[in-house]
Every structure is written in structure tokens, then in C-alpha cells.
């Protein structure tokens, strides 16, 4: 069942340029299949040492034997099961569990976790027509056969149990749990019950609506226990029917956008993605999505705002999947040496500190997103076009910065540099694109805000040097005679949500400045992440264009409490709008220093310094705004 694999250079180039072919994707899928089979072998080898003796299921090795038999019947059917993205999540969960020695008290029980292999075998037998009887796990009366569907037995036991799957080999099967039975016809989209109130539910699908060459449907995966790699086996209920219908409508709209205006992106999405895992809705402009290297082909996506929102998210996640698949064959970034601390960097699209591999992943994914908005800004009209211009301008300039530095980073391999060269070539002509004044100005402000906020959260200035600056400030010394401190990464950088100001800028473009002056209704309120209401009110002043009032209000907040990182950055943006060069440069380029010195002044005197006066003084310290930068 295993194969050897070679990756043509053309496949790397096809992924890098976003111009995938069916052949390149088939090679990625074939390598993923072999990768998962190797994990299966490891699971089967480790099971006898860790599995409980009282397991009601046969050994995992026997489930894999069924997969091998089914492959002889129908290789395509088994490939479809093995390529199911949650399978990769399960293999990692199972191996970790077995490496821990089958820890007692694990939820679910060890045999039930490993029983997913039997569910895969049952699905393969059904799809291939391999006759036989298999024992498969059940959870609270639910039996899931990945890619085929799931059965719900309302009268089933509350905990973990075992069901019997009898495959006839004539296109039907019977599933029994206790004295309840169901007749299953794979491929039949109609629920069918044999007896009692039990029901068989086929998988939900998202269909491409196209008049051109048909593309395979995507699974709307809301039942597989390993669909969410962040919390495998999370007890989350399937979607209500009305929400599933909403997903189908949105996907139809997204497919229409992609097929009409983004043919290369549409092809990548249709070739790479197999499943969309729905997540709860997020506020507008904060669609959440995620992917996982061992779940190639899967995208976790929160319920989008509209079809364009879903389209751009699909483009983003399809690129992550393509790069994950390529990375399993070609090393683009060298891992750190054992015991060596991994270097972390700033990425303009994230508020956490990212390793080199994460920077490359983001640059690749957001190149596709920027290309999407580059086209959309010409196709849309009115406020939607302004918003598209803004999204494009932010990403274009962010990518220019990141792609300039990437090839020189320690750890990029020769193939990684080749990959990045394709991105540089694709994005180079973008610098000549004209963006209208308002979205262009807001994009520059957004990037300044993102970088300064990141620095405030992840970098720290040397305390002794900041204490000396505080003393000089209090003594009335000339700033030109002071020395600029260095900044270093904090020991434990953590993930942070973005500042609400980014959402407010998008609200301004979508609805106009007046939308920010009156409190919006709760349903439309930008996500504030428990933002201090007083600070959020000042942010709204700033983004709506009332920079002078915001400047005064930020200063008042900081005079009361200088330990407000977001207020320092907001003040820097307000001062920049007012043309206050030295003060705004200090706050936007080295905000962590300004805050640290202000706190040192308060510790020495018991009161906060004048925020603008201190910032203006620090802005004149030689080299402060040019030294100590962390890339």
C-alpha cells in the first residue's frame, strides 16, 4: 500500500505561483496518503503495549487489513477515506495517546479513541463494496463513518459503545446498535430508517455552481469527531438545518465570485480543499479561520458575513493547505537545532510573534489574498470598492516588507529561496498600482498601528537604560545627550487579539465616518475584546477623523494611568496626524521605550509624566527611532 515519491521542481513552482495543476495536486495527495499509512503502521505497532485488555474492538491492525482489502476492490474509494482531513488529526491524537502509554482516565476511553480506525475501515468497506461484518465505535448513540455519514440512535446508550456494521457488498449495509437497526445505501442523500426512531444522515456538501467544468463538492464537515484539530473529540453538536442552508447559500455566492473573477484561485480551492469545518459566527471584519499541517485539505471557518468574505477566506486556507502538502515533501525552512531557541519575528497580519516557517506561510497565503483584493477593487463599487482598496493596500505594503527580508533570514533553504522568488516576482508590479486617497491613508495608518502595537506587546526595553532616561528627563537634561536603549523580545511572547482600531477603520470605509460617532447597535458593534469603554470611545474619535480631540483624550487617559499600551500607540497616531514629528516617531517606532520610561518616572515621583512632553523629549534622543529594532 506504500509508495515512494519524488517531487518535480515544477510542482514547487506551481504551488508558489498559485497555478496548481491536477497532476501536481494528485502527487501531493499521494504523498499524504503514504504519510498517513506510515502513521497507521506506527499506531498498530504501538497499540499492544498501551491498549486496554478489555477493548470490545479487534486490534487496530485488523482494521488496517480491511483497508488493504478494500483498496484491492476499489483504490479510489480508499484514497477518498484516507484523504479525509480529520484522519490526519486522529493519527496525531492516537500516536500521542499511545506514546503516553494509554494514560488511564483518558476521555474518551483508549479503545474508543483507537476505534476511529475501525470507523475508517467501515467507511472504506462501504465505499468499495467489500462485504463483511465490522465492529465500530458509538458515542452517545451516534455512529460516524467518515466521508459516508453518521447514524443517530436516540435510544442508544449514553456513553461509549460498539455497533455492528454488516456490509452486503451489493451497495447496501445494515448498522445495528443494540436492538435498533438501520439500512444504509452509500451515496443516497435521503435519510433512511429501518426500525425505531433511528436515522441515517448523509454528509452535508457544498456544491460549486458553475456552467463550466464541474468541480468536486466540498464536505461541510460538522460531525466527524476529529474535524477540529484544536480540540479533537470536542462534543459540539452538528449544525442546525437553517445554518447549514446558510452555509450552502454563502458557498454558492463565493463560488460565483471565484469562478467569474478569480479562475486560478477557484482552481486552487477546488483542487486543494476537501472539507470546510464550520465554526460559530464572529463579528463583522473578524472572520476566523485556521488550518493544520496534518489535515491537508481542511479549513476551519467561522460563519462568514457574505459570499465575498467566504471567497477570500477559502483562497487563504487553500494556500495554507497547498503549502502544508508541499512542506511534507520539500523542506523550505530548516528547523532549529535541538536545544536552540526558535527565532521569532513580526508579521503584519498577526499580533503574535511568528517563527520563520509561520512568516513564510503567512506571506504565501496573504499573497493570494492580496491578489484577490487587487481584482475585487476594480469589480466592486461604492464603499465595498473602498474597503477592497484598503485591504489590498495594507497587504501589498506588508508583503513588500516581509518578502524583502525573507530570503536573507537564517534557516531559509535553497528551495525556500526559490519559492520566495516566485512571490517577489508576482508582487513586484503591484507597487505601481494607484490606491485612492482615503483607503491609502487609512492603510498607512493601519500598518503603523499594527507594528507599534506588536512592539508594545512583544518587546521590552532594558530597564536600567530606561531608568537612566527617566532620571535625565526629571533632571531637565538635554535629550541629545542621552543614549537610546535596546529592545529585546520578551521571554514568553503570547498570542494577542488585534486592536479594535483595525475594525473601526473598516467600519469607516464600509459605512462612513458618521457610523463611528454614534454608538452602533450591539449586533454591529466591532469586537472590542473586553476593551476599556473609555479607550474604545477615544479610538472611535481617532478613526472617525477627530484627531485633535483624540489627542487630548489619549493624553488625559495616560496622565491618569501611563500603563495603557494601546493608548500610547493611539496617541502616537493622533500626533502623527497633527504633524508632531519627534513625538509621533518615538511613539510609533519605539513605543515600548516611551511606556517603560513613563512607568519609571511614575515609580520615582508617584505621578505620571506629561505624555506628549515625554514623547517629544524621547523623540530627540539620538538613534532612538532607528536602533534596537527587532525584525
Task: Write the topology of this structure.
Blueprint: H1 9-17, H2 22-50, H3 60-73, H4 75-82, H5 85-99, H6 110-114, H7 116-128, E1 132-139, E2 142-145, E3 149-152, E4 160-167, E5 173-177, E6 180-184, E7 199-201, E8 205-206, E9 218-220, H8 241-261, H9 263-272, E10 275-279, E11 289-290, E12 298-302, H10 307-327, E13 344-345, E14 354-355, H11 356-379, H12 383-405, H13 414-427, H14 437-458, E15 459-461, H15 463-475, E16 487-489, H16 500-511, H17 514-517, H18 533-543, H19 547-560, H20 565-577, H21 581-589, H22 591-605, H23 611-618
Parallel strand pairs: 9-10, 10-12
Antiparallel strand pairs: 1-4, 2-3, 3-7, 4-5, 5-6, 8-9, 11-12, 13-14, 15-16
Helix pairs in contact: 1-10, 1-13, 2-5, 3-4, 3-7, 4-7, 8-9, 8-10, 9-10, 10-11, 11-12, 11-13, 12-13, 12-14, 12-16, 14-16, 14-20, 15-22, 16-18, 18-19, 19-20, 20-21, 20-22, 21-22, 21-23
